[in-house]
């Protein structure tokens, strides 16, 4: 006898019937046209499925040219940040039932980064800002034979900002970043925070100087868009505030 | 077509690839080609930890770890390699800590450790705390830490470059690596990378199963590229089914949940693992637990209206412990199932998780062209490779270890090889195979759709070569895969453009999955015994007389162009442990 498989898995959960949902997607392909357009697709879907499942149904059954990034499909890899019903989210962590599927679900590329095709944006400026904050542990002197010691409390101090998956949902939700791509943006500051408040690190001053720049933390207007957008639940605005405070007090 | 020249080219930017890159970049001019941005790799999905006998919280030593690895792999492990894995584990963890990895800490400030399946004190006496961890996001932390250090070292990445072909030139009759051919997603351009050494670190191939913890992008591209060029694949019949995937979705819920005290229960609330593994119980090795779950389901003790799953029960654990140690997986349960793990058990089922088999290598990461001959300049590390440290069943926390130990080893070995050798001449028309493949798919007017064939493949794999297998089910799969491979020739894509053509890449990835699924099924059919993750109901016992050997699968092409699989076998390296019956 073969391994028991789940015959009804196709129909999603046994107790939840399929519904018809309209996906309204912002399409853009410069190989075809310089203009972006909205296109509607009707999809039969279980409301407990993800927006990513809906996009896959469109790509696999209706229009193979629909283009988006994705990989892990459960909110870990950070590939599929997009603007869904006007809000930045991961398509793989957003369930249809949480979006009022009675109305069309709008899906468009995240803002502030150049759209290359459909939902795919140029991530290079985003990663450049990340690289600019020295996102790595810097230590001086001889290395210990064993591990460096760190108390559980010191470890906890920067726990929140270690969760970042570099999806760009925060940075591309920030109105300051939309208006001026020179701003480091929340994600880079989050990753600087992760090291500034790590008791093992010895380059906090250097990172603070980088963020003291005219395009650094002082551009933040505390709108909390980034905190709302973070799919990992990081208190992004709080982290930025802590960096600002550290710049004033030079204590971290 | 563009031609690039590098000393060392690394294919893949997950844990193994970036660990190799950190070493190779210091020693040679190195390029990393990755089909995803580096931090998107599936290493980031690993949760529970990384094994190393640090003995920070209780007595432990690397010899016990070696034994557990050999036993966990049902004695198909090459014991010399397992010894290296367990010995070098300690430095591998300390290296990561020094690179900045934020491990959880003990009250003394050292790296904290927890229990994990199959890891024991003194050769199976009791579970031991050996897994070094960072909450339930250890893989995420490893991936981020390695990327951070790649930034620090100035590693050169080619993001969204899909390596589709391995170039091999015969030098004095010896197959030698000459470089790779890659497709650039953004532009559709084809690039030839001439390199003195090439390291494959491109990950697993789990996407030929339907219920899987694997990412959409785990399509065995590296294995397929080497296999198509006549290099063997080792032990492909051994695939791990992780006991606790989210019901129907396959999303991984770490074994660390059971390490923290979580219990598996059937519909009667019974802790059924006590029956199957009296000592290790819920922390028996993964193959044992997955078979036990399906036995419960088949005997009518499964949960839910269809009786098709069991429960992972965390409700007796304090909420503070779940928040501190298992924050991500409890959130998955809330997000995807609408379940509160503080108060309700989580429906789970085994999920296709990890390929024990892959491109055969020796302990330096050098790829083998047969049982003994290495391919000069060619290396592999991580899930794409088969050293073999995992044998017939990998222990939890040994894969994050594998990528670090053998990623580092292959990075050093490849760079040192590059320092001592010159470029090998590229084959004539090096990009020909990829150019033809791309052109044919773009111009095809065939009626078959990629998504349809892939779905049928995944369904036949789940039904026929999953946790339980028989001659009949495997034959059904072999026939179905042959049919699908035939239909694949008639596949077409809708997107005909050059820019970000993921439609085209999904078609190419499906071709890889089909080839590898066939190797897996054919290898499984020939192994008439049960061992580790390969369980044959028609041959329920391990057969050391006839099958204590690695499978080596080769692609053979007849004069007419028709391909077939030739199976050969390779001896297992045994040093200090004689095979024993495996009990937990």
TrEMBL record, chain A:
Its cofactor is [4Fe-4S] cluster; [3Fe-4S] cluster; [2Fe-2S] cluster. The keyword Nuclease does not apply. Transmembrane segments: none annotated. InterPro entries: 2Fe-2S_ferredoxin-like_sf, 2Fe-2S_ferredoxin-type, 4Fe4S_Fe-S-bd, 4Fe4S_Fe_S_CS, Beta-grasp_dom_sf, Helical_ferredxn, SDH/FRD_Iron-Sulfur, Succ_DH/fum_Rdtase_Fe-S. GO terms for molecular function: succinate dehydrogenase (quinone) activity. The keyword Repressor does not apply. Its EC number is 1.3.5.1. Residues 154-176 form the 4Fe-4S ferredoxin-type domain. Pathway: Carbohydrate metabolism; tricarboxylic acid cycle. It catalyses: a menaquinone + succinate = a menaquinol + fumarate. Binds 1 [4Fe-4S] cluster. Binds 1 [3Fe-4S] cluster. Keywords: 2Fe-2S, 3Fe-4S, 4Fe-4S, Iron, Iron-sulfur, Metal-binding, Oxidoreductase, Tricarboxylic acid cycle. It comes from the Bacteria. Residues 19-113 form the 2Fe-2S ferredoxin-type domain. It is an enzyme of class 1 (oxidoreductase). PANTHER family: SUCCINATE DEHYDROGENASE [UBIQUINONE] IRON-SULFUR SUBUNIT, MITOCHONDRIAL, SUCCINATE DEHYDROGENASE IRON-SULFUR PROTEIN. NCBIfam families: dhsB (TIGR00384), PRK05950.1 (NF004616). Belongs to the succinate dehydrogenase/fumarate reductase iron-sulfur protein family. This is Fumarate reductase iron-sulfur subunit. It comes from Streptomyces noboritoensis.
Automatic annotation (TrEMBL), chain B:
Residues 454-584 form the Fumarate reductase/succinate dehydrogenase flavoprotein-like C-terminal domain. Keywords: Coiled coil, Electron transport, FAD, Flavoprotein, Membrane, Oxidoreductase, Transport, Tricarboxylic acid cycle. Residues 7-400 form the FAD-dependent oxidoreductase 2 FAD-binding domain. It is a peripheral membrane protein. It catalyses: a quinone + succinate = fumarate + a quinol. It is found in: Membrane. The keyword Transport applies. It is an enzyme of class 1 (oxidoreductase). The keyword RNA-binding does not apply. Residues 467-494 form a coiled coil. Pathway: Carbohydrate metabolism; tricarboxylic acid cycle; fumarate from succinate (bacterial route): step 1/1. Pfam families: FAD_binding_2, Succ_DH_flav_C. Its cofactor is FAD. PROSITE patterns: FRD_SDH_FAD_BINDING. Its EC number is 1.3.5.1. Belongs to the FAD-dependent oxidoreductase 2 family. FRD/SDH subfamily. This is Succinate dehydrogenase flavoprotein subunit. It comes from Streptomyces noboritoensis.
